[in-house]
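Quick note —
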Amino acid sequence: MFVCPTCGFSNHEGALFCEACGTYFHTGGVLATQQLENAPASKPAPSGFPQPKPTLEVTDQWLVLTREADQRRFTIASTQPTTLVGRSDRKARVFVDVDLSAEDEQTFGISRRHARIHFLDGHFLLEDLESLNGTSLNGRQLRPYLPEVLHDGDEVKLGSLVLKAALQAKPAEP
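Predicted structure written out below.
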């Protein structure tokens, strides 16, 4: 048994905290958190992920995802801050913004809630939603819930469905 130096309570040997008063045995005091300052960081933290490239000032931007096999296109406007990509399923009450149900989901392995596309600070971001068959960007598997910047010409792979990304000021006519 280990006796707490603060309150005298007998704790089990090897305990990190006093069960009675909460004293942290490593420091000898009650463990407390400190509030962070509101001051901005002096510089951004280093990252191994591609950083956004500067874009032209355009009021309306569009992301066009094209399936090269049949030239089927999915257009996403920058006015929509978040777009859910996957398969709609009425029975499960799942409704998505970009519905890939017609894309033979059994063959391509597209989840109901497969990915999400955000428009933030002038950039489109792609985020995997822990889909069963994954999402990749230019051949690199995305980590779930970690959005990555999309650039013009990027290859997006949802399961095994390959789409080409194009950023446009105004979508071209089909």
